[in-house]
Amino acid sequence: MQITKHTGKFFVTLVTALALVVIALPARAYDDPWPDIQRDVFDNREVIEGDGTITLEAPYRAEDAAIVPLTMRMPESIAGDVKKLTLIIDKNPAPIAATFQFGDAAGRGERVISTRVRIDMYSNVRAVIETKDGKLHMAAKFVKASGGCSAPASKDAEAALANLGKMRIRHFDPPARANSLPATRKAQVMIRHPNFSGMQMDQLTREYTPAKFVEELEIKRGDALVFRMEGGISISENPNFRFTFDAADDETLHVRAKDTDGSVFTATSLDKSS
Amino acid sequence: MRLHPAFARNTRQLLRAAQVVLLIFFGSASVSQAASAPYEVREIAPGVFVHEGRYELFTPHNSGDVSNTGFIIGSNGVAVIDTGGSPKVGGKLLKAIRAHTDLPIKYVINTHMHPDHVFGNAAFANEKPIFVGHRKLPRALTARADRYLKINEKLLGQEAFDGTQIIPPTLLVEDTLELDLGDRSLILTAHKTAHTDNDVTVYDKQTQTLFLGDLLFAKHVPALDGSIRGWLALLDQLSKREDVARVVPGHGPASTEWPDALAAEKRYLARIAEDVRDFIKHGQTLAQAAKEAGLSEKDAWLLFEEYHARNVSAAFAELEWE
Fold first, then answer.
1. Torsion sign, CA atoms A148, A151, A154, A156
2. Sheet strands side by side (includes B209-217)
3. Which residues of B are less than 8 Å from A152 in CB distance?
4. Could you tell me which chain B residue has the CA closest to the CA of A25?
5. Do A112 and A79 meet the contact criterion of CB atoms below 8 Å apart?
6. Dist CA A90 CA A85 (whole Å)
7. What are the pLDDT digits (tens) for A231-251?
8. Given A22, A63, A201, which is nearest B290 (Cβ)?
9. Between chains, do B143 and A190 touch, taking CB under 8 Å as contact?
10. Burial of A43 by CB count in 10 Å (0-12 exposed, 13-18 middle, 19+ buried)?
11. Range in A75-79, B2-6, B268-272 the model is least confident about
12. In contact, A62 and A68? CB cutoff 8 Å
């Protein structure tokens, strides 16, 4: 079902109203956290919503709250002006899921970033971009999901830590396309990491596993920065990023990730269009 | 719709009071159970009984009776295999057992961690059985306890949820384990990650009956919460067994033919694996696969809409690392 922003909003309002009236749960649970986030994160600056400079694709109902796929798109007309993207999940314990600072190699064509997040309860998800002129633009979607942050780190508990930090980089443009040189390339970076949220029960000690997650991720094409991400506990286990970047003669990607324990993981894509 | 907590509490107290009154008149501990639908068990082989759960999600109406349960009677004791999704269902199973034998319940075996198979355990606590499961089952239950309890209360409603507690196994199956019921022995096998990471099968030597738990779904669409590669590999391995006369699925008809019963599930899982690998190969995303992969199986299963896209998501997150 396609949910437009307005019906989405209407639905949120309706649900909130019903919840307050019929279920008689504490009103606090239905407070809208957005005004506080706007104040704390964006200094109460104006946020322009729905002007088409950013779109967010998210499932209305998540299949698995621990791996909810999100895609953010910025059209070619504005992509080159985007400095920063902030991904927010209003009702997660730490609402800022990630920030992306874009560099010189981020590309001039349509800019696309996909990742997967944990969503702890029915919530609005927001993608906010800051352009070079200092303006903020936002796209928001309501997602029905619950329990994503406390879901066990892996379906196969013992295999989880065995491959910590293993990375995969994949280029999506076939060699045949190298000659036609589209302005924008696509690639994917995958990192084996449990990204412990701090809300998961340790299966052996029966205590909460301390948070341990990838807090920094830097992707460069050659020496030029594609983006630098700062992430939190909302990024899913085995962090996964699909992104666009600027075409060049040498498209080798260099990835450096650091987790909250200070462990550093690096990888380089072996050839230009594997 | 949820009731106001205070109202629900009052209602529960009233119901309890009514139960006490009825108890005085009829001397039965199961008045509230007798009022609802009967809990049928079928003797699928001598001394082997199975109840076929409904093909539904948890609702207050079904009290969590949505999975198969079974019991096997030896000469000096009984083994129970899975206990249903609530103490209420577990209580019905216990009553059904008592209609067939007064022998002690020596073992309660849980085939894996899912709530619809373990939350009836509480009804057996007074029988003082030994609870048995995979070596990874206690950990799996601990990791999910809060969430399972929350979901169960929400979906089942207070009446069926009342008395719920998680009872983990104390006798663990490391690899294989033989249990003696008196002139009858059961072989339990702990498997590698497949449907979940804590699947156990139970084999009754005497009648060559194999309880597969949720390693086998029939009619009810399979639910993947472990490893699709592991599950497919295990099905291949299991299908070679020649010492099996019949199998009991975790969801599906009480007794099914061997090894034909595996065919539909194998086809389903293989279809997902093949489609998902194809999506990955062509650079498509998890979101695209969740919408489109495996749809040729749509009409072959009950509850397809409820589980399929989630299965595809899980398969995708696993297979993209191949």
1. negative
2. B176-180, B185-190, B200-204, B209-217, B246-251, B256-257
3. 140, 143-144
4. B4
5. no
6. 16
7. 999 999 999 999 999 988 889
8. A63
9. no
10. exposed
11. B2-6
12. yes
Cα separation, A39 vs A41, in Å, equals: 6
b/e per residue, B216-228, with b = 16+ CB within 10 A?
bbbbbbbbbbbbb
Residue of B nearest to A168 (CA): B321
CA distance B143 to chain A (A): 5
Could you write out the DSSP letters of every residue in B73-112?
A: E-SS-EEEE---SSHHHHHHHHHHHHTT--S-EEEEE-SS
A238:B317 CB<8 A: yes
Over residues A18-31, the pLDDT tens digits come to 444 444 444 444 57
Instruction: Kindly list the residues from chain B whose CB atom is less than 8 angstroms away from the CB atom of residue A240.
Output: 320
> How far is the alpha carbon of A41 from chain B, nearest alpha carbon, in Å?
29
Question: To which residue do tokens 């008809």 refer?
Answer: B253
Global pTM reads 0.85
Amino acid letter, residue A37:
I
Res B35 pLDDT > 90: no
| CA-to-CA dists, residue B86 to A23, B7, B50, B114, B117, angstroms | 24, 22, 17, 12, 9
Q: Do B226 and A156 touch (CB under 8 A)?
A: yes
Residue numbers in B near A205 (CB within 8 A): none
Q: State yes or no: pLDDT of B304 exceeds 60.
A: yes
Burial of B153 (0-12, 13-18, 19+ CB in 10 A): middle
Rounded to the nearest angstrom, the minimum Cα separation between A164 and chain B is 13
Please list, in sequence order, all residues whose beta carbon lies within 8 angstroms of the beta carbon of residue A52, skipping any fewer than 6 positions away: A75
